[in-house]
Fold diguanylate cyclase.
Amino acid sequence: MNDQAGLPSLSDLVVERVGFGIFVVDRDLSVLSWNRFMQDHSGFAAEDVIGRSIFERFPDLPRAWLTRKVESVFQLGSFAFSSWEQRPYLFQFDHDRPITGGVDYMQQDCTFMPLMHGREVVAVCVTISDVTHVSVMQREREEAVAKLREYADRDGLTGIANRRYFESRLADEFSRWQRYGGQLSMLLFDLDHFKRINDEFGHVAGDIVLRSMAQRVADVVRNTDVFGRFGGEEFALLLPCTPLDDALYVAEKIRRTIGDEPVEVQGVIVPVTASVGAATARTGSADYEGMITEADAALYAAKRQGRNRSVALA
């Protein structure tokens, strides 16, 4: 208190009016000071908290963590800090962000400051900063970046992986196969006479056929497989841990999935079949591109043999 007419000191006014929480505890975690921010957000006035253990009024606080944090400041005599990214909040305070912000409580940065008397730490001052807006903005930014990254990996028409992403995964799996061995296969397939479908029914119908075929195949492949559009009407399927014989079995499954039922486009029945080429990683292969070349050769062999079939080269 200021001795002039009993007015509060300027420092007291600052502590009371700042836009962040300030409270002080002793080594036993008893509260020595409690500012207006803490009062307004906790619902407890200073006289209800000061002189009591912080855990008496706030039993939900992380007791072990907070005790260690304060004790380290007493022992080392140096500042400590906790970010919302490490621990989203210390106190379960409400925030003023909309529910769509995606956070339950005010997100908080906490600073632990030693209060010294000479060389001795006599108390620890803890500040609570409301960083809810920052945290929500960062989460939204991270989600946006993740979506952009996902879109960059996806084919715009069919929604499955694009060629760039497929080849990246194929390169990773091929490198893993080179280090650890095992089995690795892939399929290349395209829709037979697709140009005829475009010419007869139109490009809009062709796009509907491509989307329909992509969805059919996506519904029958394993979660561990990578299914992508290679370009135009050509698709690829990466089959980790799969020998060539099993890959041919999958090829036949895909061929039947595509060809057993025509696609209906605006009331018009469009028959669709596919030719499939299979390849496997072979000892002595220099890189993953050899698998693509082999699968491509097998695909064209299937077309030369009459289409609507699966082929693997010996």
In short: The two ends are 94 Å apart (CA to CA). The chain has a mean pLDDT of 90.
